[in-house]
Amino acid sequence: MRKILQQLGRYRREALLCIGLTALEVLMEILLPFITARLIDNGLEAGNIPLVYRYGGIMIVMAFFSLLFGAAAGRFAATASSGLSANLREAIYANIQTFSFSNIDRFSVPSLVTRMTTDITNVQNAFMMMIRIAVRAPLNFIFSFLMCLLISPPTSMMFLIAVVFLIVVLGTIMAVTLRLFNQVFQKYDDLNASVQENVAAIRVVKAFVREDYETKRFSTASGNLRRLFVRAEGLLAFNNPAMMLAVYFCILSASWLGAQLIVGGSMTTGDLTSLFSYIMSLLMSLMMLSMIIVMLSISMASIRRIAEVLDETPDLKNPENPLHQLADGSIEFDHVNFSYQHGSGRNALTDITLQIRSGETIGIIGGTGSGKSSLVNLICRLYDADSGSVRVGGEDVRRYDMEALRNQVSVVLQQNTLFSGTILENLRWGDPNATDEECADACRAACADEFIDRLPDGYHTVIERGGANVSGGQKQRLCIARALLKKPAILILDDSTSAVDTATDAKIRAAFAAKIPGTTMLIIAQRISSIEHADRILVLDEGRVDAFDTHENLLKSNAIYREIYESQVKGGGDFDQPA
Questions:
Q1: By the 8 A CB rule, do 496 and 480 touch?
Q2: What is the SS3 assignment for 360-371?
Q3: Per-residue confidence at 576, pLDDT binned at 50, 70, 90?
Q4: From CA 402, how far away is CA 316, in angstroms rounded?
Q5: How far apart are the C-alpha atoms of 561 and 559, rounded to whole Å?
């Protein structure tokens, strides 16, 4: 809770004003029955009409101020709660941006979406209730009880029985429902995951006619959520019967004792009237407290999930006095071991030792799961090695400022991502200050100009979210052009030409040689034709270096490489290349 409230920031003033105004509103409401009793006893029963007018005027003024304080408190409550939710979303989003890949692996994307939407909305509603009702209800309860004690101490003692009863019942309900709501939000994650996966892959779903299967899958997730909500809300439904039992007990007790006291002459009619007002105020306060308990039961689970993201600290941090410049594009792995789950004993890379000279073009090949992507992820420090060291430009990557290092190491990942916006806006992720001509030049080098020039709006064509309106090959070429605009010291292509034909692949490689001759290039590929012209080729097998040599030497000496080569050549080559 403390972690959440720290995000109030500049809205702390509105929250405090809301609390203060709510207290004044309660004060006005508490004094009204007291004035009513004086009006009845000293005015109406005594036949003192001027006093009736005077007390009536005072009550009107007090009611007006109560309304004014309540309206102002409500406005400040809305401002403070909305500000808190906005600050929470910004804080979570900002913290996510600092996460390393290993941090992101701990949270699923649907889970993060649920935390930034449903969970924060729950916290916003709970906070508004806390600074309004959670202030109003206790104050109302305390002042009403004090006034009841002033009017009739014997009658007031009956309320304590009702209070103890409600505390026991509501406390039990809250303890059980809190556990249920923790499970509810985990089911929300499952539901969001089902929706996100289905919508993102809707073309595949339709292509394989799997609509019925996906509908059943969603219904299962939705049904699980419904059953948990029914159990939780079913328990919370006991709040109202318990409250009404306490209300009727207090009313009957007050009526019976009050009648005896009036007959005995120790209580006036006005006092009994105001006592009933205070009884209803007191019980309404308990009713509001039960509502707060319900909201807190829901929001505590949300608060815990939000705090998990806020408390998550990045695994990768900048060192003190970091380096901001790379001497060159040389790369060295020195006995590197790496696993995605530290201490699991299942290494993605084992004892990797190799040296790459600045300006070299290196091909990387190996079977699925051989560690190709894991290897290049260590170069730009998306992950840190478990042991050993990775050096770029002669320095350990952990000595560099991460932003400076990644600006010099351009990566076109296996899963290419474009963002909603024009083609130019997507290209300028590589260089925000790139001119239109520089963007066009990079697209020519990546062979992307071939399809851009055919588009009606050219470089101003709007790309849909995720690049849904361009093909896989077009998306790859745009991502390569975007990477070229960074003019990097090291360029990593992680199987990023798999969706283009071999002729286009050859053109792209030729353009690289002309455009960025001094750049160190690492090309991960599944087909030999993409890397056979590289200076050297690294063959990986089960996370280990199996061979590192030229194409010609590997054909003579390495069984894995020769097997891949022969299977591709004897199998007929690529679809657009004869065997």
A1: yes
A2: CEEEEEECCCCC
A3: very low
A4: 9
A5: 6
Residue 492, token pair as written in the block: 């990593």
Cα separation, 76 vs 72, whole angstroms = 6
Q: In sequence order, what are the residues at sequence separation of 6 or more whose Cβ sits closer than 8 angstroms to the Cβ of residue 44? A: 52
CB 281 within 8 Å of CB 148: no
Tens-place pLDDT, residues 210-258 = 888 888 888 887 888 888 878 877 877 777 787 778 777 777 777 777 7
Of 24, 17, 37, 18, the C-alpha closest to 64 is 24
The model scores a pTM over 0.90: no
Helix axes 120-151, 12-38, angle to 10 degrees: 30
Indicate the SS3 state at residue 542. coil
Amino acid at residue number 485:
L
pLDDT in tens, 184-206: 766 776 777 777 677 767 767 77
Kindly write down the DSSP assignment for every residue of 171-218, as one continuous string: HHHHHHHHHHHHHHHHHHHHHHHHHHHHHHTHHHHHHTT-HHHHHHHH
Distance CA 446, CA 512 (A): 8
- Could you tell me how many residues make up the chain? 579
Condensed to tens digits (0 to 9), the pLDDT of residues 129-156 reads 888 877 788 887 787 777 777 777 777 7
486 and 407 in contact (C-beta within 8 Å)? yes
DSSP strand pairing (361-366 vs 520-524): parallel
Q: What is the chain's Cα-based Rg?
A: 35
> Taking each helix axis from N to C terminus, what angle separates 269-311 and 211-236, rounded to the nearest 10 degrees?
140
